[in-house]
Amino acid sequence: MVDDTGFHLSALLLAGGQGSRVAGRDKGLIAWQGRPVAEHLAVLLRQVSAELIISCNRNHDQYRQWADVLVSDPQPDFPGPLAGILRGLEACSGTHLLVLPCDVPKMDSALLRELIALAQARPNEPCITRTGDRWQPLVSILPVGLIAELQAAWEEGVRSPMRWLAARSHQVLHLPEDDRRFFNANQLTDWAD
To answer: FRET partner for 144 with CA separation of 20 to 30 A, picked from 34, 100, 130, 154?
Structure first.
């Protein structure tokens, strides 16, 4: 998505986890409504962005079919989502990066468009979602200009996306506590569709 103000949106699908809560399976490849959830979310992200980056640490051949760009963590020990976000920002060709984890299969384009509109209003600040009192930092939009700040924080040992985001001025998309679009499929039983 590119608008007349120069806001150019790329998207990052985080699929680089070790799957410890789903018996070591690659969450992005677990079926949701008959197809891998990564494919389902890739279709969704392409509706709102000009470029799709997928952060994955295994099964690259399978993820390649849905992505414009693949990135992997620099360390082999699954250092967490902030590593994937940093790699996504480094690879991003846009001015902003929409971040989405692969374990929110009920996410929809209406929510993403609402988040994008908020980010476009103040493009120099990250835009984070919040459901009730719970922060959702992995559904966010980040200005690419924050790469140096994130790299410095990473080198200082910061590993929490929320800790990094909360340390700077940011916008918040407030949503109801029970917003079903944030259903988090973390257990194998959650994937029964």
So the answer is: 130
Whether the CB-CB separation of 119 and 171 falls below 8 Å is answered with: yes
1 inside domain: no
Q: What is the pLDDT along the chain (193 residues), one digit of tens a residue?
A: 555 568 999 999 998 655 455 445 688 888 888 899 899 999 999 999 999 999 998 899 999 999 999 998 776 665 688 989 999 999 999 999 999 999 899 999 999 999 999 999 999 999 999 999 999 999 999 999 999 999 999 899 898 999 999 888 999 999 999 998 887 766 555 545 5
CATH code at position 116: 3.90.550.10
